[in-house]
Amino acid sequence: xxxxxxxxxxxxxxxxxxxxxxxxxxxxxxxxxxxxxxxxxxxxxxxxxxxxxxxxxxxxxxxxxxxxxxxxxxxxxxxxxxxxxxxxxxxxxxxxxxxxxxxxxxxxxxxxxxxxxxxxxxxxxxxxxxxxxxxxxxxxxxxxxxxxxxxxxxxxxxxxxxxxxxxxxxxxxxxxxxxxxxxxxxxxxxxxxxxxxxxxxxxxxxxxxxxxxxxxxxxxxxxxxxxxxxxxxxxxxxxxxxxxxxxxxxxxxxxxxxxxxxxxxxxxxxxxxxxxxxxxxxxxxxxxxxxxxxxxxxxxxxxxxxxxxxxxxxxxxxxxxxxxxxxxxxxxxxxxxxxxxxxxxxxxxxxxxxxxxxxxxxxxxxxxxxxxxxxxx
Length: 377
Known about the structure:
Blueprint: E1 24-26, E2 47-49, E3 68-70, E4 91-95, E5 102-103, E6 112-116, E7 122-123, H1 128-131, E8 138-141, H2 149-179, H3 187-191, E9 196-201, E10 211-213, E11 217-221, E12 232-239, E13 248-256, E14 263-272, E15 282-287, H4 289-301, E16 304-313, E17 326-334, H5 340-345, H6 354-376
């Protein structure tokens, strides 16, 4: 049922939520619609867009089958805490909600969270143990310039948990399938869609990225990990404040020969966004399978290499591709041995192949023997 833009609509009967076959309800831009309540928990509703302009009903958590909630451009002032009861909710879009001040704890089923509310001040999260059960693959806090310090810290921690969990799961799965004897499987189609993007306001690369720079190039030295299995890489870009509009940013990573300084062919990461315009610096962290595999192949042949990163918008009507300023760049290799504790907490060892686990055990034994030998000497 699509009744968006019915400016004269003032009321919706609560029984609409009891319709057994209603799957999608779009009430966006019904600006005269008064608040209403829902009492049924048997609704078949999977998609709901932009309900009354000022508030969600407190009984909202009864919509147990809801998967997508779209509140874009509404004047909603609060979201009821009962939203955490929506255990099937996968996507929440609350961009351009100019009166929203706080975001309550969300269900762990959320995969995509899109926020662009300058009025937003506080974001609440569940316990860290509960956050390890999440599977967010797209978190965007664009232009949320009034977030308090505690919320920014908690967003950063939540991003780290979800990014590393996502990266380990999909890079380990890719390694397992690449070594399997399966045939007639298009790995490119199967895994290239597994991109994860996490973004929030900030001006520096987080400390947990080993390799970081404020320039457009840097040298990666993986020699400390030469005995450790490498599953891939995650990336961090600091996008500078920029008022230009675009639908997409292309982040290009190339390698540079450390001997003759020649630039080699590279690979691009594409980040999509509707009408990109940022009013402050933003931290953008990405796990991108093609780019991760590109650098992993290089790292297998040499433990020390140099990379360069550039950012451009997609071509406009004049076919120009203006550069996007980057204030920083960071890389973190995905190494199970080093991140053993993190992986255990995420309960992801089931995703690492038996081959990888065997190698890890051997390496741990070798490291222990080396340490004992040093003490004897």
